[in-house]
Design a protein that fits this description.
Low-confidence stretches: none
Number of strands: 0
Helix content: 55-70%
Largest sheet: none
Length: 61
């Protein structure tokens, strides 16, 4: 998941991957909120605070 955020995070692909289509589209059209939203996700994903569309934490790989 972290690799998705690093390489295509500004396009919101990682949010589509976990089922968050609405925020994925917002990130796609704003290029990650001009990079700010991407940086926040870059911090949240490795800390384990990122959840899927049902609010469940992601499994550690």
């Amino acid at each position: 998941m972290l690799y998705l955020v690093i390489f295509v995070g500004t396009l919101g692909i990682h949010r589509f991957y976990v089922g968050k289509v609405g925020t994925g589209l917002l990130m796609l059209f704003t290029f990650g909120g001009c990079g700010i939203w991407w940086i926040i996700d870059l911090i949240i994903v490795p800390t384990g605070s990122f959840t899927d569309s049902h609010g469940q934490p992601l499994a550690k790989d």
